[in-house]
Amino acid sequence: MHLKSYIASILLTFFVASAFGQDQPVVDENSSKKIIPNLSDPQAVEYAPSISADGKTMIFEANKGGSYKLFESKFVNGDWEIPTPIENVNNYGDSTDLIGGPSISFDGNTLYFFATIGFGNSADIYYSTREKTGWSIPRSIGAPINSDGYEAFPSISADGQFLYFVRQNMEGPQDRDLRKLDQFCYSIYQSERKDDGTWGEPKKLPYPINQDCEKAPRIMADGKTLIFSSNRPGGLGDFDMYQSTLKPLGDWSIPVPLNFANSEFSDQLPTIAAQGDLMYFVYNNQDIYSVVIPPELRQFVNNIVQGKITDADTNEGIAAKIIIRDALTSNIISEIDNNPEDGAYTVVLAAGKYYNLEVVKEGYSSFIKSYDLRNVKIYQEQQQDIALFQNVFLDVSVSDIELFEGLEADIEVKRDGAGAFFKKVKTILPNGTIQIALPIGSHYEFYVSAPNFKSDLFSLDLTGLVLYRNFEKELPLTPEKKQVMINVSDLVNNSKVKSKIILRNKDRDERIEVDGNSMVSLRVGDRYEIEATSDQGYAFNSTNLEVGKNGDTNVSLKLLKLDINAKLELKDILFESNSANLSDISFIELERVIQLMKENPTLKVEIAAHTDDVGSDNYNLQLSDKRADSVVKFLMENKIDPERFVAKGYGESLPKVANDTDDNRASNRRVELRVLGI
Amino acid sequence: MKRLITPLLLILCLNLSYAQRFKDVFPQLLKASDTEALSIIKSYMIEDLDHPNSNLRLALIYERRYKACNPITEYEKAIANANEAKLRFGKSAAVVTEKEVSKNSGYYSDFATGYDNKGRPIVDYSTVSTKIRTAYDSAAKFTEQMPVIYEYFTKSVNFHDNAIKAFNEINGQFGSRDKLLLMYNPDLKTKLQQMISDYDSSIIYLDKYLATAKAYNGTAFKQSYSIKKIDTYRLQGLLTSPNFLVNKIEIWDYKTWAQNAIDEASTDVSSLRNELNMAELSVNNSLKKLSPLALGPDYTPYKVDSKLIFSLVKYDNQSLPVAVLKYKQFKQDLIHQLAQVNDRDTTANELYLVHLGELIYKAREADSLLLITKNRLNAENISKYPAYFQTHYNGENGVNQFITTEQKVIKDAADKAVSEMIINIKNNEDITVNEFVTYKNLKIPTKASPINGDSVSANIITTHTELSTDGSHYFVGLNKMNRKPGHTNVFVAKTDDKLKVKWYKEFSMTEDNASPNINDIGDIAITPEGCALLVRSKNDVGIKNTLFYINENGEEIFNKELATSWFPRRMQYVESKNAFIFAHKGASFTQNYKEEQETSLTSINILGDILWSQTFNFTGNIVDLVNLGKGFILIGNYAELKDTEGKTFRTRINTGQTNAFAARFANDGKLAAVTPVESNNNYYIDRVIKINDKIINLLGKKGSLEIPERDDVHIIINQSPEVLNIEL
After folding, report:
1. Which helix (H) or strand (E) holds A21?
2. ipTM, interface predicted TM-score of the complex
3. A614 in contact with B at a CB cutoff of 8 Å?
4. Nearest CB neighbour to A330, from listed B3, B157, B471
5. pTM exceeds 0.95, yes or no
6. CA-CA 20 to 30 A from A472: which of A13, A256, A359, A407?
7. Does any CB of chain B come closer than 8 Å to the CB of residue A322?
8. DSSP conformation letters of A465-512
């Protein structure tokens, strides 16, 4: 501990304390200068107010319990509430330790102040962050800002990049008269935050800021307006407040006295809410006063954007980085951290510029919004709550490229470069869709496969800027196909027959029509019903085909020439067990018979039913008669003239094959169509 | 006192303070930073504005400052300092004379080429004057050209920023590119065109910026740009703002993206809308020609071109017009089926039931298609085809009205099918026959009656009757007319198609000296060969279950004792397998539906060989076994049941509640599916009427098996088994 620093601390304590007990200053009743009733305790000195950007929180120091400690007040319903002590900060040192000069960051999340902890130590700058339960235990800001000497009255810029504070001015004032006073003197310093977040070597601000004894620097929300107090010649008395602006040239303008507030007494430590119309300051080292800044002297207009940054799923606050860019150059103006506890943030944007605000957090989505304040002339507050999410939802829709029906497909997902799949899902019918949740931050590859379809893949890169939560991917898959030759020929002489082929896919809604004796491309793995018809005097024929990857690629259908006595065995004409009631499966073939009868209007046929040999001849004869009748009734029901049919049951008398096995007996249970006339 | 100190005095004071002091000030300048030096010189120059070295030093500081600035990101500072530098170099050119340099060479040591023997710097004036001149020119060039470069740069960024924001906004507005194309409208077109214009302007100014910047200083400005294609909607092309500060600028091609969207929307999507309109007109036209009352001469329904469906779905997987068209396309079939039912041939009653069944299916399918339409109906989907929906449906409300109307059409069709079916089933059952058929002096009841457990109250009671396909009837039951007192016989009587008894047979259950009682005939089954009976008997030795199979002449083909002691319940003959399947359940005559009892299922072929046997346990009762084309269904009521996944279904059995169920088995006896027909109401079924595999009617009553109510219950299932209709 240097002796000088020690003395400085003592002197400051004395200086502040000496104000206590002074008579209340007489305030010009005509001015707008007012004491803040709720903040003012007649028994104490209130000092060094600092107001948050939204103008709703004020922190100041006061010697209510003897030594100076920090107090906080909220602006509620148009008035400041009774201040409460900031215990975590006040209890940091001993009860006699001086804690003062608070500066609340513009987002309200960090509190800078100075403290003299322990007897004989000089003042250092500390900071505390806002947590769920209140302000955190203070931490020293450390070197290079703190030194063995005296550092006090910090003021943090709106973007958090610059810290202004005072150190003892060892050289004393330039002014000869002031030198004679031999008073304790300070100079204003500035430190800039480095890229790594640490503070740079403080620099003493040049003339015209530092001239004689300067103190209580307060950098305003625009980051360019510095108000400080100085006892330099030309003031109204004691310390007066001066305002200087950082010019485009990079120099500070000649400070102008704020005479709308200055008085013959000490005027210092102003704080201006972002609205820019009201200044709070310490009058006569005694109390906090507010004064309306004359419109012509309002130096800047700010807009406030504030809200909470939360996890979209948990609604909990999350720590994120807020990046403000100049929209006209894309240059980053500032990067701000929000409060990690509740996600609260406040951004101060000086009017007259065009900004892009971006919120980023690793592993989360991003948020972007523009604020064009180029023509803004008034203070505005904008509430912008921001919900970021960790997962996006990809709605994958896998379909058949030809039929556009949904497909049940397997989707395997892996991260780019990873060996193994980390997720396997299956699309759900009927739409062939599935929603896949994917954590942000990776590049994903998707392998999509469905039985008997060509596999496909796609990727989704979530390593970059992700703004939207829902993505859609439609992936049509191409079926594996096989060329099948369909030969249609005369049953007797095997000559090719001009015919039409209808292929009905039994597994999906596919119907193909081609000419007979041609190649057709069919889906591997599917079952087809192939029907051949001809207008050349032939009956129809049909067969079923299950298209395998290997095996036959030819289908032969023999057509029966519709000559007298020609017999066409109808396929799949089935009846209920031991009954003449037609099974529903029979209707497909019977529809073909109807079509044949319609296409050949002179055709007359016998419907012949046969049984196997189980049961007596008589029983089977009657059963077959009834079954033939059932078929005829169905045809009649479909408006085919009954005169064109003869129903006849043959019982078990005309077996196709020996009735020696279940399969053979099934073959013998049949219905045939015999041509009676054409 | 302070008030007396005026600014004038301050200046005077300062003048006095700094007068004649440059010599003193100079050493401070040598070790001061630029900021400090600036402060010192400015203070000094209040007294001596034309001081040569001060002016030059200021010029040099401002020069360093403007050159240290990034001319784009610190434009204002750079220009301000360059202007100052220009001003000060200009002044220096006037005041820093050869004489001055020669006289005060020590102040110009920065330009020294060496030192003389006295240690004084040797400064060549030309070096100083050249520096002043070139630095002035440089600053002048900077102040002249940089504003233009900066303007091009910021204009390029600004225009590009507009394009980015428009793109971001469009991405936020439309969930997919296809949605964007379908919801394309004049506003969106204007926005896309503006985006193209902004992009073009951005590129024009970027080119100008790069050209002028390189012309100004090719070494300092080395930027170039490349254009990237936007492939993935909502992921690529999204930016916070353009990053034009890097050496290799990457630009998303918003122009091509927007132009493609405009082109596709104006051509492909536009023609798609026309085709959709034509399809709507065609299907409406086809529907107009159809009558639900009579079959037309030829039914050729309009089929919506699959290519159109393909295209519509390609743009919108959840396409509302596709749903509407598919419904209307199918509605043709529904109307045709209604015509099939209404335009009926009254002689073919079985087929009428089939047509009614088909109508149920058609109504069901139509309902599911209409439900898809309803589910897809929302403002967004309407907005994709505003003209189509406005023209044909009068907007969203009109589509809603259409759905309501169609729901009624479908419901009416389904209701008609179900009510007609139940009427016709009942008509089929009301076949009156004689009360008795006689064989010798024996009067055999023609109506089946239940027996009461172990006792037979009458001398002869018919428990089962069956009509054979050949028109003959089988009557099966019990009598007590055996010569041995207390013994009960099974009888089987067969009639011809005129109900004249052709033969009558009795089968005594007497075995050794035991005194048997028949305590159940579970079921009978007619085959082409004859008739099979499931009989449970009880004597002093124990319980015996027997399958009797007799031919059409009443001769026993075989009797086979079965390895179960449970009560026989149901039996079916399976023609395709030439085998019987039957079910036994529980140890009590009346099925205990409140406690789980084992059900044994067995298949025996007509030769008496057991094909398979297995169990199916549930709490409830068996109502019937139903043959299917492939396999069979066990139908009953349950209080507790497990499906094939092991999921348990329970009713509120303490209130007597049961629900129906159907369990499908394969031909080899393997359980394939279990379907409970769940309801909050109490009901039970007691009859099953199968039309075909697609229509199986379950008939019963509301209330419980113990306390039935008057109201009928009619459930329709299919072979899956899937519930098609419930009327509770």
Report:
1. none
2. 0.73
3. yes
4. B157
5. no
6. A359
7. no
8. ----SEEEEEEEEPBPEEEEEEEEEETTT--B---EEEEEESSSS-EE
